[in-house]
Amino acid sequence: MKKTNSKKKSTPPSASKQIAIFVPAGNCILSSIIGTYKIFTEVNKTLHRQNPGKPLPFNIQLVGINNETNLYEGAFNIKPHTTIDKVDKTDLLIIPAIFGDFAAEVKNNEAVIPWIIKHYKQGAEIASLCTGAFLVAATGLLKGKKCATHWIAFNAFRALYPDVEPLKSVIHEEQGICSSGGAYSFLNLILHLVEKYVNHEMAVYCSKVFEIEINRYSQASFSIFNGFKMHEDAAVMQAQEFIEKNYAVKISVADLANHCLLSRRNFERRFKKATQYSPAEYIQYLKIEAARKQLESSRYHVNEVMYSVGYNDDKAFRTTFKKITGLSPLEYRNRFQSYGS
Fold first, then answer.
1. CA distance readout (Å), 62 to 57, 79, 139, 182
2. Cα R_g (the chain), whole angstroms
3. What average pLDDT is seen over the chain?
4. What is the DSSP letter of 46?
5. With the CA atoms of 204, 206, 211 and 216 taken in that order, what torsion angle do they form, in degrees rounded to the nearest 10?
6. pLDDT (tens digit, 9 = 90+) per residue, 294-324?
7. How far apart are the C-alpha atoms of 96 and 129, rounded to whole Å?
């Protein structure tokens, strides 16, 4: 999500904003809890040094379902400040990333669902970090909306919540619900919240202290296209396998439909329903994924890579590559190629 940074300095709020960082039961990403806590705490410490007599901008609490949570087979232990039944009012809910069997993890945390809904209806904003989106989506608050989450979890997210559109954005904000992309891109969302609730200067300061690239808007250059296969349409699966083996040669939609013994119209409808992509889009994504791998690991000229994945038009290849990855082929190579290549 692109933001316009105001040059006008804002002042810290006169009263502390209540922040509840939820500590999930079961499997959660510890770094998303610690990183969030550290940045908000750094803001408090910095503003206290600058203005010792003024209220701190944030009152930060770790809030769990239980009084204690064990993570990573007992290697780490979190003791939240309090539990959800003791928090009656908060201004901002932070929902950290979960991992593993997402449906099972949502069930492990079903007690927090009505609590999230209650605070949202009372005016609290919600910030979903990475796969924390699964817990927020389980509330129904995202129905008909868009939400950023980790690109690697898109298939599972679509299967559980078909009425929510997952995005590859680093930050997305809609009707009081902020969400972030995958892994450590949650740090960009926390900086966005610092800018929103304190000021731009403090967000820039935190980006420098924690060495976070502040202006990141998309996960596209990091994603890997695997194709959605969590469906039961055998004909579409057959078409997907055919495309994966033959993407470097020209494949028409009519050829694919014939290969699957379906009419073109019926084939296109079923393919889109099963995979979320049209057949033409699916072919493009596979070609660009193959090109990305070559740019990461070889010294082939960009045109050689282009021809090897089945493109003959330089402009079309570069336009499609940038549309899918957010970078030109050369920019992509410079960012991801091995030093030894």
1. 16, 8, 20, 22
2. 23
3. 91
4. H
5. -50
6. 999 888 999 999 999 999 999 999 999 999 9
7. 5
Angle, alpha carbons 303-307-313 (nearest 5°): 75
DSSP state letter for 142: T
Residue 14, pLDDT above cutoff 90: no
Residue with tokens 């940074």: 5
Which residue pairs from 190-196 have beta carbons closer than 8 angstroms and sit at least 24 positions apart in sequence?
Answer: 190/35, 190/36, 190/39, 190/40, 190/127, 191/39, 192/3, 193/92, 193/127, 194/39, 194/40, 194/43, 195/3, 195/5
pLDDT exceeds 60 at position 235: yes
Are 189 and 3 a contacting pair, CB within 8 Å? no
224: confidence class by pLDDT, cuts 50, 70, 90: confident
CA distance 196 to 234: 48
Domains of the chain: 17-209 (3.40.50.880), 234-335 (1.10.10.60)
Asked whether the beta carbons of 157 and 163 are under 8 A apart, the reply is: no
Residue 27 is inside which H or E element, if any? none
Provide the pLDDT confidence category of residue 4 given band limits of 50, 70 and 90.
very low
- Given this model, what pLDDT does residue 40 score? 98
Of 1, 74, 81, 73, the C-alpha closest to 33 is 81
What would the DSSP string read from start to end of 214-234?
A: S---B-TTT--------S--H
Q: Given a cut of 50, is residue 5 above it in pLDDT?
A: no
Going by C-alpha positions, the residue among 141, 56, 47, 136 that lies closest to residue 96 is: 136
The model carries a pTM of 0.74
